[in-house]
Amino acid sequence: MKKYSAQKETLFQLSGWILFLLCAVFFIVSSWQHQDMIMLFGSLIFFVACILFVIPLVNVIFKQ
To answer: Which of the 8 DSSP states describes residue 2?
Structure first.
């Protein structure tokens, strides 16, 4: 089995986090439509947490 380079691994991780961000956006839209404030609050926290995980990955990609 071929080993991935560090750059490819970082891109895979970033892709996963972007999908998590997309899911968070869908949760935010759904909770807004259903006027569920608890779900909206949780979804916003999840969205912000995902962004915090993405920031270091983006820094690694631009430094390479």
So the answer is: P
Entry pTM: 0.82
Give the pLDDT of residue 13: 93
Looking at 1-64, list the stretches that DSSP marks H as alpha helix, in order from N- to C-terminal side: 6-33, 37-63
Given this model, what pLDDT does residue 17 score?
A: 95
Residue 40 in any domain: the answer is: yes
Please indicate, yes or no, if residue 12 is contained in any of the structural domains. no
Cβ distance 50 to 14 under 8 Å?
no
Tokens of 31: 């909770």
Task: Report which DSSP code applies to 1.
Answer: -
